[in-house]
Specification:
Bound molecules: 3-methyl-2-oxobutanoic acid
Strand order of the largest sheet: 1-2-3-4-5-6-7-8
Shape: globular
Distance between the termini: 54 Å
Structural class: alpha/beta
Number of helices: 11
Helix content: 40-55%
Largest sheet: 8 strands, parallel, barrel
Length: 274
């Protein structure tokens, strides 16, 4: 699929993503949490944007994704929707919004489309979430699955740094992926699993796999944008590639501003009204 094959005058749909995958084109996703970055990423060719529950950490300052609520995420989804014209917007269902009765999951998903302006939702887990996936997709709402390292289960997994799916766990993950596809999911995120397993799952499924630490055999890739742009610092997962050092750029810009204010160099005459 070439650049011109992607719609320029309407939102990309899950069918466009499937068509690109069927033609062997690898496509990119990023997270986004606001209108400005969403527009930049769309113009850069990012086909689908995830308003991830990582907002808990990169927007709201928590140390895990667990505390964030739909009430906090919906305004971010709205911003991303307003800032874009063609990107498919996937809204992440936070912990507690889709467990329990499948009707609750449907209500949450519908809310993201009706109030947020998203076109699809994402949820974490395998067998346990199949009823939710079925109910949401049967209502006409596209669902993206998420397997491997599922950060909402950090207390069961024993940390968010552990590679998942090694040994016989890989067979179970493959079964979960197949079950999600069977339940109607349009794509599956594979996070922090061995590259070989990422390839195995991708070859076994007809729907796209979206890797984040799952190797180059996946159909698509996703990163948290603050990781890609080098805003986040400290020990980052092995799969993160920093394409810029915005942390340094912003620090230096802010420090220059502070100095200019202290020195009286800002505002200069050209910044003043007459
Ligand atoms: O919430 C998120 O940002 C995610 C991605 C890391 C896939 O789930």
């Amino acid at each position: 699929m070439t650049e011109s094959s992607w719609p320029q005058d309407r939102r990309i749909t899950v069918r466009d993503l499937q068509a690109a995958t069927d033609r062997g084109e690898r496509w990119a996703m990023l997270t986004s949490y606001d209108a400005l970055t969403a527009g930049i990423f769309e113009r850069a060719g990012v086909r689908a944007l995830l308003v991830g529950d990582t907002a808990a950490m990169v927007v709201y300052g928590h140390d895990s994704t667990i505390p964030v609520t739909m009430g906090q995420l919906i305004p971010l989804v709205q911003g991303v929707a307003r800032g874009t014209r063609t990107a498919l917007i996937v809204a992440d269902l936070p912990l507690g919004s889709y467990q329990g009765p499948a009707e609750r999951a449907l209500d949450s998903a519908a809310c993201y489309l009706k109030e947020g302006g998203a076109q699809a939702v994402k949820l974490e887990g395998g067998q346990a979430v199949l009823p939710a996936v079925q109910m949401i997709t049967q209502a006409g709402i596209p669902v993206m699955g998420h397997l491997g390292l599922t950060p909402q289960s950090v207390h069961v997994l024993g940390g968010t740094r552990r590679v998942q799916g090694r040994g016989s766990a890989g067979d179970r993950l493959l079964e979960d992926a197949r079950a999600l596809q069977e339940a109607g999911a349009f794509a599956v995120v594979l996070e922090a699993i061995p590259a070989g397993l990422g390839t195995r799952v991708s070859e076994a499924l007809s729907i796209p796999t979206v890797g984040i630490g799952a190797g180059g055999g996946c159909d698509a890739q996703i990163l948290v944008w603050q990781d890609l742009a080098g805003l986040t610092t400290g020990h980052l997962p092995r799969f993160v590639k920093r394409y810029a050092d915005l942390h340094d750029v912003l620090t230096r810009a802010a420090a220059s501003y502070v100095n200019d204010v202290a020195d009286g160099a800002y505002p200069a005459p050209e910044h003043c009204y007459t």
